[in-house]
């Protein structure tokens, strides 16, 4: 495992050598945030937000503030530090004065549950300034999704319409779209009236995960469809019906200074984010970033949340289930996620735990083996507190934000540092405290931290599991 944990030595791109250090930023109360639209201020207050977190202030400065969206942003900031609002707020503010409705911001996430979570954040702020948010994740049938995303003209009975004219009148019902790559590609390939030609903002959240998997070449396709050719046309426009707003080619931000390599075409602003952002030049090259700016937290490559405590529990392999039960009992029924190494062991462990009839908490599994509808229902029940212990494969590892999760248990040691960071990051979010326990066999080494990562103290098993100690 030590070999797998070795941090690959890749040459760091020159622009990554002088990042903006987010940890030098202070929280900023909304009343002091320059240029914040009062309607958004009110929407944020309604969400219980009275100040912005450091990463949100740093991104605001580079977008709405003096930075003015001049550079593409790469944000590497710990789990739970508020990256979603860091991009959602500037995008909504920037679009708040738009005159014509068309699809201008696209947010891509790797999973449906994550996309739903991010849409909820946009739903809380975008309507305040008259913007609509759509979802393309395959939660409903494609026909339902199309009817949410594309507005069709009302046809009058008795009049014969030319199909060509009819398709010219299709327009977007949404300003902002939150999507998973698969469904996005379905709409790109086959939804009449769906166009990316007015796109101003592209967000690739959980970038390292999305770049790892090609998903039908969604990224090159999106970049291709949003790029002007020298002739001023979109290269693939012939494959799509022209839209009503086909003539409004200047909707996107334009200006010579925003062009690239001397060209003056309007530029698509990109924001890419992760708690474990890749430094791999070949991966980053896929994003075709414009004059990128790195925002990162502190000197370490990866950082755990400040108030996370990490513990290792060493026990004999055959006693692991008993240690787990004792630990869960000690946690007193508070919300907790138990991570295992595979979908099969998730199922086995959950079944085993449910054999203990007198446990004072409810246990359910959440894994990629289950149907999406089952997973979403389990997640809702976990959020609402009907289930206290979620046994999960790595389907729950990234991005999921569930209030009240105070403990994470690695029943199986994660193979990679990145996995450890994302799993542990399901707790200690938004400045809260949290604990991450890792069960280890006697001969099993703890995650190799290397110099890229910091973790707090461990403690002996019998301190946490006195019943077994
Ligand atoms: N300014 C704020 N004030 C209070 N709470 C906030 C603020 N910004 C975000 N939050 C809350 O912080 C939590 C974490 O935010 P978010 O999910 O955006 O983190 P993240 O950095 O994207 O984490 P991950 O890397 O795990 O995806 C959420 O519950 C969110 O509602």
From TrEMBL:
InterPro entries to which the protein is assigned, alphabetical: DEAD/DEAH_box_helicase_dom (IPR011545), Helicase_ATP-bd (IPR014001), Helicase_C-like (IPR001650), P-loop_NTPase (IPR027417)
Domain Helicase ATP-binding, first and last residues per copy: 64-295
TM segment ranges: none
Record's keyword terms, sorted: ATP-binding, Helicase, Hydrolase, Nucleotide-binding, RNA-binding
Catalytic reactions of this protein: ATP + H2O = ADP + phosphate + H(+)
GO molecular function, one term: RNA helicase activity
The protein's Enzyme Commission number: 3.6.4.13
Function: RNA helicase.
Domain comment quoted from the record: The Q motif is unique to and characteristic of the DEAD box family of RNA helicases and controls ATP binding and hydrolysis.
Entry's family note: Belongs to the DEAD box helicase family. DDX51/DBP6 subfamily.
Protein's name according to its UniProt entry: ATP-dependent RNA helicase
Organism name: Ziziphus jujuba
UniProt gene name: LOC107414131
């Amino acid at each position: 495992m030590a070999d797998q944990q070795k941090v690959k030595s890749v040459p760091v791109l020159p622009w990554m050598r002088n990042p903006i250090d987010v940890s030098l930023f202070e929280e900023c109360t909304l009343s002091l945030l320059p240029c914040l639209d009062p309607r958004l201020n009110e929407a944020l207050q309604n969400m219980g937000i009275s100040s912005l977190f450091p990463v949100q202030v740093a991104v605001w400065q580079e977008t709405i503030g003096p930075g003015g969206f001049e550079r593409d942003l790469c944000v590497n900031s710990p789990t739970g530090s508020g990256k979603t609002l860091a991009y959602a707020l500037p995008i909504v503010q920037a679009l708040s004065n738009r005159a014509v409705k068309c699809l201008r911001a696209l947010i891509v996430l790797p999973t449906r549950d994550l996309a739903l979570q991010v849409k909820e954040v946009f739903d809380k702020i975008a309507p305040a300034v008259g913007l609509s948010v759509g979802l393309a994740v395959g939660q409903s049938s494609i026909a339902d999704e199309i009817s949410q995303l594309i507005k069709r003209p009302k046809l009058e009975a008795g009049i014969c319409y030319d199909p060509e004219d009819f398709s010219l009148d299709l327009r977007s019902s949404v300003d902002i779209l939150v999507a998973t790559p698969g469904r996005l590609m379905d709409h790109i390939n086959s939804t009449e009236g769906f166009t990316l030609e007015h796109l101003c903002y592209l967000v690739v959240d959980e970038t390292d995960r999305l770049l790892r998997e090609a998903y039908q070449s969604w990224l090159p396709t999106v970049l291709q469809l949003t790029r002007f050719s020298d002739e001023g046309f979109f290269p693939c426009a012939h494959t799509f019906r022209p839209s009503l707003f086909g003539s409004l080619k200047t909707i996107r931000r334009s200006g010579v200074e925003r062009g690239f390599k001397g060209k003056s075409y309007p530029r698509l602003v990109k924001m890419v984010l992760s708690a474990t952002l890749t430094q791999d030049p070949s991966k980053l090259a896929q994003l075709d970033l414009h004059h990128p700016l790195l925002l990162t937290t502190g000197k370490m490559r990866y950082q755990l949340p400040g108030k996370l405590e990490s513990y290792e529990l060493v026990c004999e392999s055959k006693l692991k289930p008993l240690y787990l039960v004792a630990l869960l009992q000690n946690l007193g029924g508070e919300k907790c996620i138990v991570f295992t190494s595979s979908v099969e062991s998730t199922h086995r462990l959950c079944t085993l735990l449910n054999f203990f009839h007198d446990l004072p908490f409810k246990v359910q599994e959440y894994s990629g083996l289950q149907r999406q509808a089952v997973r979403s229902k389990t997640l809702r029940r976990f959020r609402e507190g009907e289930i206290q212990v979620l046994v999960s494969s790595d389907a729950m590892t990234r991005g999921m934000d569930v209030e009240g999760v105070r403990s994470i248990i690695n029943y199986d040691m994660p193979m990679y540092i990145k996995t450890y960071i994302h799993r542990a990051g399901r707790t200690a979010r938004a400045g809260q405290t949290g604990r991450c326990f890792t069960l280890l066999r006697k001969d099993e080494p703890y995650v190799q931290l290397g110099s890229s990562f910091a973790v707090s103290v461990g403690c002996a098993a019998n301190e946490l599991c006195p019943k077994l100690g």
